[in-house]
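User: Can you help me understand a structure? I only have the sequence.
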Amino acid sequence: MSTFTASISRAFFGLAIPLACLAALPAQAQSADTSFFVSSIGIGNGGDLGGLAGADKHCESLAQAAGAGGKTWRAYLSTQEAEGQPAVNARDRIGKGPWQNSKGVVVAKDVAELHGANNLTKQTALTEKGDVNNGRGDTPNRHDILTGSQPDGTAFPAGADRTCGNWTSSAKGAAMLGHADRIGLRDDDASRSWNSSHPSRGPDGGCSQNDLRSTGGDGLLYCFAAN
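Assistant: Let's start by predicting it. Here is the structure, written out as tokens:
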């Protein structure tokens, strides 16, 4: 081997090692500071999430897999007063903020901004993997997010079901849904609402996985780091 060829080989080999090391780094490392995401998948059992505890566990599992573990994760969900148990407000479960997506973009600095002029859009309401979630006009549309909440993040009063039996029903009932892409059938506040657009409905009673998919959802959740 000529001196020139040997030099080139050594130079290339020297570059190849760090490049190989970079390639071996986990892709999710950039998500370590993530404190908000839309779940890339739902639990898969319609509105039956196993209650708030089951929903929180789902958020925690997805965050951990994406490299954003080490935080206390909460699903943005309200529950209604029932069977002697008080209502729970979604806004009270998620900490004080600020919250940022996997790209480092702040979606809201605090609870007041989250429920006011926030920075939630289709481009910022990313999944834990850093992907844009499908919205209206995409196939399939997955912009409906389970919240069970009124626009200010509080629970609905007891009576008409808006939480699929406090997240235990995959048959009869209804869940209030928000639009992650802020787009609906009309150009009004409800259609643009990220957390309180319309209740679920469908042929199985309103809370099955099929019902959630029929209106443009997939049982997805908003997940927030509460610390």
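Now, to help you interpret it: Confidence is low (pLDDT under 50) at residues 1-30. The CA atoms of residues 83 and 158 lie 10 Å apart. Let me know which part you'd like to focus on.
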